[in-house]
Amino acid sequence: MQSVVPKKSLGQHFLKDENIARKIVSSLKANERILEIGPGTGVLTKYLIPVCKDFKAIEIDKEVVGFLEKEFPELENRIINDDFLKCDLNSLFEGSFSIIGNFPYNISSQIFFKIINYQAIIQEIVCMLQKDVAERLAAKPGNKSYGVLTVILGAYYKIKYLFTVNEQVFFPPPKVKSAVIRLERTAEKYPDIDEKLFFNIVKTGFNQRRKTLKNSLRKLWADKINPDDYPVFNKRPEQLTINDFFDLTKILS
């Protein structure tokens, strides 16, 4: 553990509890092709190698990459020194794959927006992140935590909150609790709607979440429809299910 120094600028908090590491890895259902984001000291990596047919890891920290190459020589050319947020994920595997990792808290939302762009090839995600973010992603309609990422990710994935992780199992300990969640690609076909409009409706609605959709989406429905003809416009965004947002997109298309 002391061979790699955690860097505050990269939001690094290295997991040191082996039992939790095994529990995280065992939460992954699909293990044919796996991409680990931010492997750090390899606490998950060593449990992933024996169960994965095609494994790769992406790590932005050169010091960590050097450490992992010495620790796991069998992973030669499979540890990618790159920024996940800038990487072309289509080039990594032949076919769909799963993602696992202890996501840096300061960029977890950015990671998920990146995943959305590649949702067609990412079949499952098991990750540890800040507890309040995990709760937000797994929130149900009517909950104050229910928001943009909840809806957009939920359009593609079934999201499940798995378990909470204490601060003391990290080096250095973060100031907040963590949680592990699993996202499984839904078998249902994505509705035939305008995705760009769908994203715009969700983001616009939640940016003014205290307003009814009739008011927050005024620029989108103006000159197209009479919102009074549709009861959904009298609701606030957190009251809508994902299917409601699909229906709303079809109305405004």
Topology:
Elements: E1 14-15, H1 18-26, E2 33-37, H2 45-48, E3 54-59, H3 62-71, E4 79-81, E5 97-102, H4 108-117, E6 122-130, H5 131-137, H6 148-154, E7 157-165, E8 170-171, E9 178-185, H7 195-207, H8 213-216, H9 218-221, H10 242-252
Parallel strand pairs: 2-3, 2-5, 3-4, 5-6
Antiparallel strand pairs: 1-8, 6-9, 7-9
Helix pairs in contact: 7-10
Descriptive key words:
single chain, two-stranded antiparallel sheet, Helicase, Ruva Protein, domain 3, 10 helices, alpha/beta, Rossmann fold, 253 residues, seven-stranded mixed sheet
Structure notes:
This protein has a 7-stranded mixed beta sheet with strand order 4-3-2-5-6-9-7. It has a two-stranded antiparallel ribbon with strand order 1-8. The chain is built from 10 helices and 9 strands. It is elongated, with a radius of gyration of 20 Å. It has helices spanning 18-26, 45-48, 62-71, 108-117, 131-137, 148-154, 195-207, 213-216, 218-221, 242-252; strands spanning 14-15, 33-37, 54-59, 79-81, 97-102, 122-130, 157-165, 170-171, 178-185. The chain has 2 domains: 8-185, Rossmann fold; 195-252, Helicase, Ruva Protein, domain 3 (Orthogonal Bundle), CATH 1.10.8. The model has no long low-confidence stretch (mean pLDDT 92). It is of the alpha/beta class and 253 residues long. Helix 7 (195-207) crosses helix 10 (242-252).
